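Why does residue order matter? Because the sequence determines the fold. Keep that principle in mind as you read this record.
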Amino acid sequence: MSQVWRLLGDVDIHALCEAVLAAPDSWWWEDQTRQHGTGVAKESQSIRLPDSHSLSWQRWSAVVHPVLENIKDRWYPTSRYGKIVLSRLLPHTRIALHVDREPDQDTLHRVHVPVTTNDAALVVFTQPVLTRCHCVPGHAYEIASERPHLAFNQGQTPRVHLVADYHHADQ
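Structure:
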């Protein structure tokens, strides 16, 4: 991708948003893999949706699957899913500057779907030029996560994104 982010278009997140707002806070703390992994996401909370057998997928599939399928059908029809995560940044927290290094980086499209946000929550890319992206709920964005970037929430409300990787089906 030549740009650091690309607006794909609108997606219906109504049911997902309702579920995110109703989710018990404890669900966000059950899996702290990302917080302890590289350290860049230590201030965030995540709900990883690893596979159809996981408890988290059973909790979330009814509201996440339609969003994922909508994106796949419209923008990546020959793809398969990879990593799927709900990522939350509480007020006055950040994800430090980093580069996402995936073994299959050349075959993936990382998509962010903002579910809740505020005007002071941004994704910032530092190369090739400083670029700020305020992602608006109800839209899907392809993000060049292989470029140096960070995220922060200086607002008063949580920022939640559904993040999903789409891989070329023939790879």
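Strands lie at 5-10, 44-48, 79-89, 93-98, 108-116, 121-125, 131-133, 139-143, 149-153, 159-168.
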